[in-house]
Amino acid sequence: MVGVLIVAHAPLGDAMLLCVEHVFGQRPERLVAVDVLPDTDPAALARQLRELLALLNDGSGVLVLTDIIGSTPSNIASSLAQDQQANVLTGINLPMLLRALNHRNLPLEELTEKVMLGGRNAILNTRATAPQQQTITTGDKQDAASRSIDQ
After folding, report:
1. What digits encode the pLDDT tens for the residues 99-134?
2. Is the pTM of this model over 0.90?
3. CA atoms 73, 75, 79, 81: torsion sign
4. What is the Cα–Cα distance from 108 to 115, expressed in whole angstroms?
5. For residue range 3-47, what is the model confidence (pLDDT) as tens digits?
6. For residues 68, 72, 74 and 76, what is the CA-based torsion angle, rounded to 10 degrees?
7. Domains and CATH numbers, the chain
8. How far, in Å, are 95, 108, 150 from residue 130 at the CA level?
9. For 96, phi and psi rounded to 5 degrees?
């Protein structure tokens, strides 16, 4: 099962964990968040993330979700992922995270693509068109009316 690591500016990581606990009723195993504070030492953060990547990886890999591309959390996570069996996605949102947790049995590359599409598809302008009427790209043949947030 793919591990999931959230690396984000504080307090986003912890807030995401609280949302997951609200949805699932508990925190799923092998899900960890690291909140990066403004004065965090990048070298210390790199050491911490390296340890967490090793801890979360049972051989299936780790999906790392960060908030802003080009930021310290994203840059350090991306540099470490190259040496580990890990993929990094930026722009975390709750639908991405829920999708990742619901489909962790997939191979890492397939999970990464599914989570990335889910994150994009969760961004809708509800004023323009009702969400159930909007076209969603999934890579599969399901229609929008039969789709749920965790697919």
Report:
1. 999 999 999 999 999 999 999 999 988 887 666 666
2. no
3. positive
4. 10
5. 999 999 999 999 999 999 999 999 999 999 999 999 999 999 999
6. 180
7. 3-146 (3.40.50.510)
8. 18, 33, 19
9. -60, -50
